[in-house]
Specification:
- There is one protein chain.
- With 147 residues, the chain is mainly β.
- It has one helix and nine strands.
- The strands form two sheets. Strands 1, 2, 5, 6, 7, 8 and 9 form a seven-stranded antiparallel sheet that branches.
- InterPro entries: CHP02241, Phage_T4_Gp19.
Length: 147
């Protein structure tokens, strides 16, 4: 029966393997964009008017969106983003998103290949609310492999 029940989605870690190995840079509160789909192309066959053929062309990956509490210092991931946005130095990163079990052991891993920062933002600063400042990082990447 081991492995029968679906795992929980809140126990995971994100590692920027060639950017940072700091513990604070692996803690994110959400990861979205781990999906893949096919672009398609339609083909109309001569003499066949009942339907069009829809053929797969290439795979397409959405942006990977990472959210965490805003770190005020000592973040190599933030420095990596700033190098891209301020100096236009783009260094492709390799990320490893790992789903963990109750014993903190890996269940599944997504290896994100050649990621670069597309957008960085923080939540609105508002004196009328009592919320944590959240940093959002949107990454463009080539593809991922599932381990």
């Amino acid at each position: 029966m081991e492995g029968y029940y679906p795992p929980v989605s809140f126990h995971f870690k994100v590692e920027f393997t060639n950017v940072s190995n700091a513990e604070n840079d692996s803690r994110f509160q959400s990861v979205t964009g781990l999906s893949v789909e096919f672009d398609t192309e339609t083909f109309k066959e001569g003499g066949e008017n009942r339907f069009e053929h829809v053929l797969p062309v290439r795979t397409k990956y959405p942006d990977l969106v990472l959210k965490r509490g805003f770190l005020t210092k000592d973040s190599k991931v933030f420095e990596w983003c700033q190098n891209a946005f301020q100096r236009q130095v783009f260094v492709g990163a390799t990320l490893l998103v790992t789903l963990l079990n109750e014993q903190h052991e890996p269940i599944k891993s997504w290896n994100i290949v050649n990621a670069w920062p597309r957008r960085w933002s923080v939540t609105d600063l508002n004196a009328e609310s009592n919320t944590v400042v959240i940093e959002t990082l949107e990454l463009r990447y080539n593809y991922f492999t599932l381990n």
